[in-house]
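Notes from the pairing session

We agreed to fold both candidates in a single pass and log them together. This is the raw record for the first candidate, unedited. Please don't reformat it; downstream parsing expects exactly this layout.

Candidate A
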Amino acid sequence: MAKYVGAIDQGTTSTRFILFDKDARIVAVDQREHEQINPQAGWVEHDASEIWTRTREVIGGALAKSDAEAGDVEAIGITNQRESTVVWDRETGKPIHNAIVWQDTRTDQLVRELAGDRGVDRLRERVGLPLSTYFSGPKLTWLLENVDGARARAERGELAFGTMDTWVLWNLTGGTRGGVHVTDVTNASRTMLMDLESLDWHEPSLELMGIPRSMLPEIRSSSEVYGEAAGTAVGGRPIAGILGDQQAALFGQTCFERGEAKNTYGTGSFLLLNTGQEIVHSQKLLTTLGYKLGDGEPTYVLEGSIAVTGALIQWLRDRLRLIDSAAEVEDLARTVQDNGGVYFVPAFSGLFAPYWRDDARGVIVGLTAYANQGHIARAALEATAWQSREVVDEANAAADVPFSELKVDGGMTANELLMQFQADVLGVPVVRPAVTETTALGAAFAAGLAVGFWSDRDELRERWSEDKRWEPQMDASKREREYRQWKKAVTRSFDWVEQE
C-alpha cells in the first residue's frame, strides 16, 4: 500500500486536511469553513471549538476520498493562521472566550499603554517585533483582563494559552486526557513573548504584559515527533511537524538558502526572505523564525506582512458587488488598458509593513469622471503588487541580498494579470510552483523529514517543480513613475483615525 504524509492546514477562513504522496503530489483534500465572528468594528473572533470540530471532519473527509487508511499515513504536520489567540480550561478543555484572530484591533489602546514612553520598539531587539495589535501577547493580556476570573485562574495554573497550532495539537493528542501542550519556534516567535536567540519565553515581555508563564506551551522545533494522534480517523499516527502558515509556505517553496524568498497571496500577503542563521533587524519589517529542524540550528527570516490583499477582492465582491466571484476581477480589470490614474490603498484596519500605521484607513485616489468599474478593479489588483514591491525593497535594503526571482503561492497566483504586473513592478521574474498549496506542503515536508519519509532538504528540492514564470516587461522609467504615484497615494491614507 502507498504511504502518505498528511497536513492539517488551519487557516483564517477554513480548515483543510491534505494527503501528499512521496512525490509531494496531492492525493486527497477535504476543506470546511468556519464562522467569522465580528462582535463590533475592528473585532474578529473564531469559535475554537468549532475549529476543532472542523479539523476532525476534514481528516475523516480526506481519508474517505482516498484509498488510504490511518496506517498508511506516516506522519502528520500542522500549519496554522498565526497570532490568533485562544485560552482554555485545562480540566474541561473548553475555551474561556472565542479565539481573538490576528486581524483583530481591539488591543490598540492596550498597545499604546504597553509602549509607554519607550515606544513600540521597546521589546524589538529581543523578540524581533514592534508592539502591535497584530501579535498574540497583547491579545492574551486582553483576555486575562476582560474575561471574568481569568487572571486568577491563570495564576492558579488552571488555564492554557495557545495559538491555533497548539490548540489543534493539544486536542489531537488527547486533550483533557494527556494532550500535548507544545508550540514550535515559528509560532512562538509571533507572540512577542519569545527571545529570538534563546528560543525560550522572554521574561521581560511576560512581566510587561502580565502573563503567567504557567499558561504557556513548551517551545519545540518545527520538525520532530510531538506525540500521537488520538480519537480521530488518524489515531495512533505521529504528529511530527508544526510551522506557522507563512513559514510553512517558505518551507514548501524550498527556500532553504539565504537570500531565497517567497510571497504568499491570501487574505493578506506575506513576503518572507531567508536570512540564514543571522538575525537581521529592520525598523520596517519583522524579524522572526523561519524554521528549526530537530536539533539543527534555527533559520531566521525577515517578513513583510501586508494586512489586505485578497481581502480587498472579497470586499469588491461582497460589499461593492462589482463582481460575483473573486475570479471575475481579472476579466473586469482587463476591460481597461491601465488604471486610469486610480490608486486604491486598502488600509481597512491600518497599514502593516513597512508603515505600521494603525491610524491609516483605506482610500481611493486619482478619481476623475473617466474612471469606471474596470479601473477600480485594476487598481485593487495593482495595490497587491505595489504593497509587495514596498516590502521587497525594504527586505533588499535590510538584508543586502537582492532578489533574482520571487517564488509566489496562494490563491491570487491564479490571476495572471496580477502575476505579470507583479513581475513588472519588481523588475525580476515571478515563479509559480506546480503545487500551489505550499502552506500545507511545507507542514507535510517538516513532518515527513522527522520520520524519514523524505531523507533531507535536497530530496525536498527535487520534489518542487515550476509551473509558470512571468518575466518583467514594463519600462523601468514607467515603473518608477507609477511607483511614486503609489507612494503618494499611501500618504493620503495616514492620520485618518484621531486618537482619543
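Candidate B (folded immediately after A)
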Amino acid sequence: MTGYDVVIVGGGAAGLSAALVLSRARRRVAVVDSGLPRNAPAAHMHGFLSRDGMPPRDLLAAGRAEVSGYGGDLIDDTVATVEPGFRVRLARGDTLETRRLLVATGLRDELPDIPGLRERFGRDVLHCPYCHGYEVRDQPLVVLGDAGHALIVRQWSPEVTFLPHTSAVTADERARLTARGIPVVEGKAAGLVVTDDRLTGVQLDGGEVVACAAVFVRPRFVPHSSVLADLGCARDENGWAVVDPTGRTSVPGVWAAGNAVDPRAQVITAAGAGSAAAIALNADLVDEDVRLALAAL
C-alpha cells in the first residue's frame, strides 16, 4: 500500500504535464500508464510551439524524465478499479492510496469499416488537418463522409475530392462544395489502393479508383472513461464526463483532463489542460491541509 497526494491515470501530454506541475509543487505524485498513446501511429506531431515535428514518443520520453527528475513516480501498469476514498488497484496487483485523482486516459478513434483504413491511420489516413494538413499540402486529397471536413481540408490543397461514402449530401452542402471547387464522387468506399507502401487511391464499390495521396476521415471519438464512470462522475448526453474549466468532475476529489473529456484537444491543448488541473488540485489540497492543521490545534 502506497500513499500519494495525487494519482494520475494516464501518462500522455495531459497526465505528464499535470505530474510535472504537481511534482514541482512538492506533492507526492504517481502516474499510471500502459504505454499505449493514442498518437502512437503518427511519426511526428505538429502545432506544439517549440516542439513542432517532434516524434510523439520523444515528447513523452522527455516528459517522463522531467517528472521523474522532480520525484514523481512512473508506474507502467493499468488501473483495474478505483474505490471511493481513493484506493487505486492496479492490474498487476499493487494498490495505491491517494488523496486526489486525475483521470487523463484519453480516447479511442472508431473508424469506418473500410479495409486498410485502420492499418494506415496516422500515416496517410488522417483525421486532423491542423496536425497533418501542411505535410500533404497541394497534393490530391480525399475527404471521406463529412462535407464540412472537406471544406476545412480545402485550405491545404486545391485538389480535394469528397466521397460521401454512406452519408447523404444536402443541397446546401453540395452548393458549398461546388463553390470551393470540391467535386463530389458518389459511391461507397470499398478499400484503399496502396503502391510500394504509399497510398495512391480509394477504390469504390463499383471498381472506380479516386486517386489521392492522403485520406482525411473524422473518426467517432469514444472516451476511455471507465474509471470516471465507475466513480459515478456526471456525464453529458454523449457520454463525456462533465468538468469545470479546471477539469473538476462532479465527484469530490476527482479531476479529468485531455482527450478523456475533450475530443478536440490537440497535444498542446491537452498539456495545458493538465497544467490547469494540477494547479486546481494543489489549491484543493492546500485548503484541506489548512483545515487539518486548524483541527489539530
